[in-house]
Amino acid sequence: MQAEIISIGTELLLGRIVNSNAKYIAAKLADIGIEVRYQTTIGDNPAHIQEALKIASQRNDLIIMSGGLGPTLDDMTKPAVAEFLKTNLILDDQQLDRIKQKFVEQNRQFVETNIRQAQYLAGGQKLLNHHGLALGDFYQNEAGTDVVLLPGPPSEMEPMMDELVPILIDSYHLKHQLISTVMKFYGISESQLMSELDDLVSESSRVSIASYGKGNEIWLRLTIFDDGQDDAQQIIDQVQQTIAQRFPSYYFSDNVQESLAAIVVELLKSKHKTITAAESLTAGMFQSTIASVPGASQIFTGGFVTYSNQVKEQLLGIPAEIINQNGVVSAETAIYMADNSSKIMHSNIGVSFTGVAGPDSLEGNPAGTVWLGLAGFGETITKKIQFATTESRKSIREKSVMSALQMIWLQLK
Amino acid sequence: MQAEIISIGTELLLGRIVNSNAKYIAAKLADIGIEVRYQTTIGDNPAHIQEALKIASQRNDLIIMSGGLGPTLDDMTKPAVAEFLKTNLILDDQQLDRIKQKFVEQNRQFVETNIRQAQYLAGGQKLLNHHGLALGDFYQNEAGTDVVLLPGPPSEMEPMMDELVPILIDSYHLKHQLISTVMKFYGISESQLMSELDDLVSESSRVSIASYGKGNEIWLRLTIFDDGQDDAQQIIDQVQQTIAQRFPSYYFSDNVQESLAAIVVELLKSKHKTITAAESLTAGMFQSTIASVPGASQIFTGGFVTYSNQVKEQLLGIPAEIINQNGVVSAETAIYMADNSSKIMHSNIGVSFTGVAGPDSLEGNPAGTVWLGLAGFGETITKKIQFATTESRKSIREKSVMSALQMIWLQLK
């Protein structure tokens, strides 16, 4: 079974944005054994859309298009495809109601062109859009190549593609599948991780192991093609287990959706422990990350952003001498911040962040110098991290939050 | 002048990597007025390379290919292109010496297949590779479409493309360039923005106006092709000014790098005003956003994360009756939070966030109900926002931060 991916968008042709949709769709198709031999990108132009469809339908069983389903006048994919397939567009009343309802909820006036988003190809199967307004479409073409229409924004396209996968498996009776699993790591470099997996990469040729950076995390993807000959799931599980045992401090999840913060919040809940923080460097980013997890209020009631030295004294009662004698970026200040925040908030655990986000240095400490404090597990723990001076302000702050989560996770688990 | 970009690589077709080369090449071509109407991705397969060349040469003046120039057996671009163009490959002795020299330097044994990297198309102009071993090529085809060969690894391709740009300008006598500008908006939907620009989209056909969502912002890109006939820069400036005047509350910057937070921090600095916050819903995200701007310490010393009702009383001194009588998600609570935080922190401005991030409702308020408070501009201002119940927890919190920044910005400017 062969498929072509057609991406539609002037922004792609102008090189304004990278085509992450083609990558996402291609990976999902590879997973279920559909071969992609061509990817084509064109603009919002009906003639070009139809020309691309003509070429693609001559060399493929399936065409997956993304983009151009929106409400504006330059969104032309649906009518162009309908004309090519010699079918009509049908207005889905239910979807139109949903769209109108959205406008009401957001107190905005309905704009007539939004009707286009509620249309789908007559004879096709509409695909619901849970993160946007435009319907997608799966058109099984008895006379030729099947066509799928997906929206352009990745936040809408990706979940719709995820829902399409089982529909494709079902429609095409796909039996042999790629089984894959993800392993998420924090605190180890990609090259170190891979070098410690050298033996597995060569030995177990059935399981392919690929690494990539995902934000501040390193993800491994283990993949095996299930050809029905043996228990592929068991083989991949075994490799996963071997890797997990090698990196107990770095490997934290095999669930794509699950963040390290969510794991920490769940552990805190199950152990009935509360947490607070005093944040200088990160200025609220840690607490905001904790509160990003639904139900965080069970373990978190609030905390402090103490950016200046004077506020560290005022809100946390840290003696001025401590900061003067040791410097604000020091183990001693981190200890006081963690201890005092947990005492004031009556929390079991207190975390603190003090450091130099840059670009300038502070008290002779270069940008990237960070002290973390962690109260609540016996004697208060500190950890110094020296990020590279070339690391960005954003990255230093985000990695500090991740490092603190990792410290807490290692203590709790 | 029209060009097609052909990317070659199995990794692209499998969705293992994103096609950043197509974006880079497209942007460079757009800059010098070469229009890209098609981008095609294929695998390392001679038949597919030749098929793609055939299609592309029928519809373009120039084809830029990247990938498949390496030393391994699956790198097939050069011989496939040579066959298509009915020309030969010539071995460049100087390049071969360079390659062999590299192997000596790295203490590695020369591998015979590396000879391929020193080949170029007879009749073509070789392009030097300063970051790798494979030669590129610019083949001007008197009988048809010109072809450029670039290596696949971005670290090699990008500098070679940079060097190619002046060669293309010279060869094609390109004088006219694309001028473009970006306009950034917050607080208005894409469809509403575009519908209020309908007249400009049709009237001033010289300036093309494209909209797209960028995170929680809406960006417009205005583009004009400078054909030397008139003052294109002046025309685009005029359209930009017209749009800016239509949306004084939503349009905040024409600088891609500049965030709304950075604008607010700069305004605070220039007006010598300090800011603090009491955050419930957002739990530190606002303060963290302010502190993401270098130099924020001049206008921000710290603040509060008051997640639970009890902590709102403890840290901010909000009377329990206020919360009990009005509810925690209310104008009254927002006012007390903003007022008291600015008083305690001796800040000119105090911002507060209280609301329901979801997924569950709270005190009868559905997820997405948000009250913002803003003290420091005369009587304390409040703003209620009702996000759609389908909006994610993450999005509700992020948009609340953006909305508060917008409120402050409108007061300051």
Structure characterization notes:
Two copies of one chain form a homodimer. In chain A, 40% of the residues lie in helices and 23% in strands. With 413 residues, chain A is α/β, with parallel strands linked by helices. Chain A has three domains: 2-171, Molybdenum Cofactor Biosythetic Enzyme, Chain A, CATH 3.40.980.10; 177-253, Alpha-Beta Plaits (2-Layer Sandwich), CATH 3.30.70.2860; 260-412, CinA-like (Maf protein, Alpha-Beta Complex), CATH 3.90.950. In chain A, the strands form four sheets. Chain A has a six-stranded mixed β-sheet with strand order 2-1-3-8-7-6, sandwiched between helices. Chain A has a five-stranded mixed β-sheet with strand order 14-13-15-16-17, with helices on both faces. Chain A has a four-stranded antiparallel β-sheet with strand order 10-11-9-12, covered by helices on one side. In chain A, helix 2 (20-31) runs parallel beside helix 6 (154-171), helix 3 (46-59) packs across helix 4 (77-85) and helix 10 runs parallel beside helix 15 (393-412). The first copy, chain A, is globular and about 80 Å long. The first copy, chain A, starts with a strand and ends with a helix. The mean pLDDT of chain A is 93. At the A-B interface, helix 1, helix 2, strand 2, helix 3 and helix 11 of A face helix 2, strand 2, helix 3, helix 7 and strand 10 of B.
